[in-house]
Amino acid sequence: MTQGTKINADLFVTCVIDQLYPQVGVSVVKVLRRLGVNVGFPKDQTCCGQPVYNTGFTREAATLGKRVLEQFRDSEYVVVPSGSCAATIRVFYLDLFADDPELLAQAKALAAKTYEFSEFLVNVLKVEDASLCGAQQQGAAAYHPSCHLLRELGVKEAPKKLLGSVPGLEQKELEGEEICCGFGGAFSVKFPHISEGMVADKIANVKASGADTLVSCDMSCLMNMGGALNRQGSDIKIRHLAQILDPDSQ
């Protein structure tokens, strides 16, 4: 695919972005439209079921999962601005519906057309030059690869390629970048002291990198690290990759 090729993609916005960071969703849509994508948004979409699935409530997770299967049944592509939610749809649904052949078939069909945001840009649209989005930033950024994006989906290079091609933006190396930030959804609630220690180590490395902006593809991770930075009085900004690529988001 090349810039200007009209394809159809529906946005699965995620709970965290919808409720806490709607500006990120706006940037995702703007970037996709700049690249020639017809963006749809099923208005009745709800949670993918990840929180209840991770805590063992599989019946409740299946109820939410069935709704997602129905809402995005006819989508050409589904774009998810979160590695964790994309992993839920693409990986965990296959386990969730393993004992129901009909729902499993639907889950496999949805998984085959579901992409995390950066993955969709690089692997489907074949965009590796951020200037095609009109992106232009000043400053220095460090990138944090979220656990589900990296380990469940295997998406490692796509975000870095895009971030590294942003005109005017210096990419800083982050020591221990692949180590978890300590959020892990329910993990940070069940084991707060361990989580606090992990995010403290991560934030120390962010500060040492010399970056003025911390970038990731998951707002839940950025919320955790941003909170830690704020408590320490740091002026390091947190930004989703879509905001870096969106020239209107400053």
Task: Outline the secondary-structure elements.
Layout: E1 7-11, H1 15-20, H2 22-34, E2 37-40, H3 50-54, H4 58-71, E3 78-80, H5 83-96, H6 101-112, E4 114-116, H7 117-124, E5 139-143, H8 147-152, H9 157-164, E6 169-172, H10 186-190, H11 192-209, E7 213-216, H12 219-231, E8 237-240, H13 241-245
Parallel strand pairs: 1-2, 1-3, 3-4, 5-6, 5-7, 7-8
Helix pairs in contact: 5-6, 7-9, 11-12
What features would you highlight for this structure?
alpha/beta, Rossmann fold, 250 residues, single chain, four-stranded parallel β-sheet, 2 domains
What is the total domain count?
2
Number of helices: 13
**Largest beta-sheet characterization:** 4 strands, parallel
Radius of gyration: 18 Å
- Helix/strand structural class: alpha/beta
What does this structure look like?
By secondary structure, this protein is α/β, with parallel strands linked by helices. The protein has two domains: 7-122, Rossmann fold (3-Layer(aba) Sandwich), CATH 3.40.50; 130-245, Rossmann fold (3-Layer(aba) Sandwich), CATH 3.40.50. Helices cover 51% and strands 13% of the residues. The chain has 13 helices and eight strands. The protein has helices spanning 15-20, 22-34, 50-54, 58-71, 83-96, 101-112, 117-124, 147-152, 157-164, 186-190, 192-209, 219-231, 241-245; strands at residues 7-11, 37-40, 78-80, 114-116, 139-143, 169-172, 213-216, 237-240. Strand 7, helix 12 (219-231) and strand 8 form a beta-alpha-beta unit. Helix 5 (83-96) runs antiparallel to helix 6 and helix 7 (117-124) crosses helix 9. The protein is globular and about 50 Å long. The mean pLDDT is 94.
